[in-house]
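Supplementary Methods, section 5.1.

A reviewer requested that the exact input to the structure prediction be made available. We therefore reproduce it here, unchanged from the version used in the analyses.
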Amino acid sequence: MSQSLQIEVVSDHVCPWCYVGKRRLEAAIAQRPELDINVTWQPYQLSPDMPREGRKRIDHYREIFGTDRAQTIMDSMKDTGADEGISFGSSPDAISPNTLSAHVLMLWASEDEAINADELAEKLFQAHHVDCENIGDHEVLKRIAGELGMDKEKVAALLADGTDESRVAELISLSQQRGVSGVPFFIINGRYGFSGAQPVESFVAAFDEIAAADHDLPAA
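The structure derived from this sequence is encoded token-by-token as follows.
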């Protein structure tokens, strides 16, 4: 019987390091095929006060980091992304969105066995970081939902009504109560947490250590 690891990934789709962390986590999992690893996604909002229509991304970055540092960070992320197979895009019209609706869509996917939540996470990351789409726009989310086989008209209606936004807010609050103050953050087997887009070898070492430690725990 293979050792089981449950990995909760706390992330926000606008976070470039969350996208890098996803890639590195996937590479690490591929190195340990003997482990039964299950990944679930938990929401977090880096900018919860972002207007629902969003703001121009370059203006948002400049406000946070300053003009020169914002450009340096964006250029550096392009180099980091290239190493992970991510082509970070840039557009003067790109929007920094409010991600609440995107997280609601992720919640629905995670509760539907017919939908691959990992694939949805990938599509949301790519839409924002590569294609420079506004993932706060319900039309964009409706299209992505349809690509995954979800009922896009139902999705659009529920998003418009704000359905389950309070549930997402509660999940974010729960993560904060568990000590999460930045993303990406990874929680393994509900007990071991570490932050940041760790190198692949760090993930693998953590898998091995946690699998060995939990294997030795006495049965409940």
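The mean pLDDT is 95. These observations are discussed further in the main text.
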